[in-house]
């Protein structure tokens, strides 16, 4: 059996909870590859599991048996992943394995990296203070940042994380000697590592970090840790976690801020599905309009002869005609759409900054997650550059990754000096007292929701734009399958109460497949209402799964009868399934409540025609034609009914009305059939030819249509033996 097939087979055994067989297979592979330490781990695991089975067989009561069994499954998965990782090390040259080989050659453990980093940060600020033996502050900053990057990489490539290392990392995060920005930058390393190989100890550490910092409303660490945790659980929806992690997760779920935090994370993750559509809208709709308006706007400000030192924005009111023109422009309407998207939390900046991720700064993975700081070594230049950095740091709704893009563009040689001067003038025009910002004691309290949004956007940019993005398991590659994640049960009430809102978000933005999964999940959890059943039916109908659509429309009708919308959808489905007699029963109810609804009357006529009740259909369609003389759909059905009843003159009269305004292939096909019934073969061929000009399949489509009409024509007395010759004439013509 090939190696990949062997691993798949063992994965299947573990997912089916055939633990003993899985351990034997894992041990067999470890022996073949001469991974002696893993053979020992397998032997110990098997011995412990067999001992537990013995006590089970002997009837010993053990309340912790379930937790032990869960942890044995977790350990078996870990040993299997370790074998996969060692096997890939010899053949895989991705960045992950290259970094792993580098650390091995340096003989550095994660504990070593933690010690080095703590020593550098001891009693100092990683960003501000000169390190021991150095007098150059910029060099000091770079040394500390390099140590931070090394620790980030060590966390990323360490697998599995040992209990001792986990505790040492937790102590590092709790240390007041380590700046919060450095801690925030380290947390994503845990996520990247888990996405490479699932590690229950890292998941447990993320829970610990959330719980440790959750009570601090201003802390970014709890937001980043929870977001990383939920992504990990969503991406490995069927993988078990250690019993200690399960216990901690349950404890976290009773914290007062838990429900809101989980809701905000789930929504931010879900909203990433719309990022590319928003970017495309901006590129194709907003920017062209902006370019058109730019000349007029430039001329307007030029005519005003603005003095940057004294300019007051309220002076714009002195030109109401210009403002009115701007408000009524296409640009204004498009911008209003964008503001609405932004107010709903949409990421409107992704497309604007995707070209600014090629700076060398972004070659380093950890830099994608660095909180923006004016003291970063990458921000070089004079005092003006620092002023601009201080301004950028205060910009709301722009993630840290994009702020670095702006600053790198400004600091480099890419931007003309005139544009740099313009940016500085904006600082002056807004009367920002940059020099006094550091001295101000008041600090803006940024809600955790903003921290979550910032982090998700940083993550999204990394996985979409990093130069070696193909080497990472991208959690944003497909929509998050929330309904399939068994860990949702561990999240307490937060998950169930918000799933409906997330389903509604998907539905509103026309991601119907994702919405359907969640509506079905809600039904499974007995969280059901008529509206959700209607929407589930609608999603099925859009997938052309008419039978399931009908099932859910009927469920909605049972739960909340009297909905005209639901009954109309039931009728549509029944007609599509050719269940016209049943459809007529529902239509009668609609006709009672609104006898003059022409759409309902047309639906009724369709089912009457399908059940050969042609006289009744003519009566109804005549009424529709009276109520709406220009209703082409009614005229088309009326002419067809008349044709079927041999009322050729009346049918032809109505068909001529139709083709004079909106002719379709089916209209000329019926006209051709009428001509056949009247033995006017020349006119029949002419009509069929006109039909072929409008049929998407041309002559072939008309030939199929004529053949399918053979029984009708025979019923009307047409000698169908002439049909092949008529069609040959059509082909020849």
Descriptive overview:
The chain is mainly alpha-helical and 733 residues long. Helices cover 68% and strands 0% of the residues. It has 36 helices and no strands. The chain has helices spanning 3-15, 19-32, 36-57, 65-89, 95-106, 110-121, 137-157, 163-174, 180-196, 200-213, 220-235, 243-252, 258-271, 275-304, 320-327, 330-343, 350-353, 383-393, 400-411, 417-429, 448-465, 493-508, 512-524, 530-542, 546-559, 564-576, 580-593, 598-610, 614-627, 632-644, 648-659, 665-677, 681-694, 698-708, 710-715, 723-732. The longest helix has 30 residues, at 275-304. The protein starts with a helix and ends with a helix.
Please supply descriptive tags for the structure shown above.
single chain; 733 residues; mainly alpha; 36 helices; 68% helix
């Amino acid at each position: 059996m090939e190696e990949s097939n062997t691993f798949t087979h063992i994965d299947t055994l573990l997912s089916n909870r055939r633990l003993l067989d899985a351990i034997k297979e894992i041990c067999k592979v470890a022996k073949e590859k001469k991974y002696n330490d893993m053979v020992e781990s397998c032997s110990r695991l098997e011995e412990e599991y067999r001992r537990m089975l013995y006590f089970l067989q002997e009837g010993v009561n053990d309340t912790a048996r379930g937790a032990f069994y869960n942890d044995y499954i977790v350990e078996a998965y870990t040993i299997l992943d370790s074998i996969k990782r060692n096997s890939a090390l010899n053949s895989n040259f991705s960045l992950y394995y290259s970094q792993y080989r580098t650390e091995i050659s340096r003989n550095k453990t994660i504990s070593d990296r933690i010690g080095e980093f703590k020593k550098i940060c001891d009693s100092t600020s990683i960003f501000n203070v000169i390190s021991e033996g150095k007098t150059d502050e910029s060099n000091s900053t770079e040394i500390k940042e390099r140590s931070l990057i090394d620790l980030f990489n060590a966390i990323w490539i360490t697998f599995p994380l040992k209990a001792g290392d986990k505790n040492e990392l937790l102590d590092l995060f709790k240390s007041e000697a380590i700046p919060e920005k450095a801690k925030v930058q380290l947390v994503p390393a845990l996520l990247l590592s888990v996405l490479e190989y699932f590690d229950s100890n890292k998941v447990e550490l993320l829970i610990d970090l959330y719980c440790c910092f959750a009570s601090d409303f201003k802390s970014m660490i709890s937001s980043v840790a929870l977001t990383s945790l939920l992504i990990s659980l969503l991406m490995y929806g069927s993988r078990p976690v250690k019993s200690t992690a399960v216990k901690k997760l349950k404890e976290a779920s009773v914290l007062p801020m838990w429900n809101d935090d989980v809701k905000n994370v789930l929504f931010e993750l879900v909203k990433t599905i719309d990022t590319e559509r928003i970017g495309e809208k901006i590129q194709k709709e907003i920017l062209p309009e902006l370019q058109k308006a730019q000349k007029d706007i430039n001329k307007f400000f030029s005519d005003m002869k603005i003095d940057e030192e004294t300019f007051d924005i309220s002076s714009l009111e002195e030109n109401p005609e210009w403002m009115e023109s701007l408000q009524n422009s296409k640009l204004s309407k498009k911008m209003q759409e964008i503001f609405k998207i932004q107010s709903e939390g949409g990421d409107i900046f992704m497309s604007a900054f995707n070209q600014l991720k090629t700076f060398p700064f972004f070659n380093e993975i950890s830099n994608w997650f660095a909180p923006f700081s004016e003291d970063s070594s990458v921000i070089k230049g004079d005092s003006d550059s620092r002023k601009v950095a201080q301004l950028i740091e205060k910009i709301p709704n722009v993630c840290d990754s994009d702020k670095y893009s702006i600053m790198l563009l400004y600091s480099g040689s890419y931007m003309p000096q005139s544009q740099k001067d313009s940016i500085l003038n904006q600082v002056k025009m807004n009367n920002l007292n940059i020099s006094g910002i550091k001295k101000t004691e008041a600090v803006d309290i940024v809600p955790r929701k903003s921290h979550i949004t910032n982090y998700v956007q940083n993550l999204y940019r990394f996985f979409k734009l990093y130069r070696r993005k193909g080497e990472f398991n991208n959690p944003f590659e497909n929509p998050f399958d929330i309904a399939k994640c068994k860990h949702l049960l561990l999240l307490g009430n937060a998950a169930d109460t918000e799933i409906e809102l997330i389903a509604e978000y998907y539905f509103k933005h026309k991601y119907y497949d994702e919405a359907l999964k969640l509506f079905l999940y809600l039904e499974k959890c007995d969280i059901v209402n008529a509206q959700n059943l209607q929407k589930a039916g609608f999603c099925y109908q859009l997938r052309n799964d008419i039978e399931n659509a009908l099932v859910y429309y009927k469920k909605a009708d049972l739960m909340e009868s009297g909905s005209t919308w639901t009954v109309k959808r039931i009728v549509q489905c029944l007609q599509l399934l050719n269940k016209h007699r049943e459809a007529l029963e529902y239509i009668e109810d609609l006709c009672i409540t609104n006898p003059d609804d022409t759409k309902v009357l047309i639906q009724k006529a369709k089912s009457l025609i399908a059940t050969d009740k042609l006289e009744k259909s003519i009566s109804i369609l005549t009424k529709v034609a009276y109520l709406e003389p220009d209703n082409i759909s009614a005229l088309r059905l009326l002419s067809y009914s008349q044709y079927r009843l041999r009322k050729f003159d009346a049918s032809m009269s109505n068909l001529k009305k139709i083709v004079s305004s909106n002719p379709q292939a089916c209209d000329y096909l019926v006209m051709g059939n009428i001509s056949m019934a009247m033995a006017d073969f020349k006119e029949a061929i002419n009509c069929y030819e006109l039909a072929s000009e409008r049929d998407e399949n041309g002559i072939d489509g008309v030939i199929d249509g004529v053949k399918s009409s053979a029984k009708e024509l025979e019923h009307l007395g047409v000698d169908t033996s002439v049909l092949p010759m008529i069609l040959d004439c059509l082909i020849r013509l």
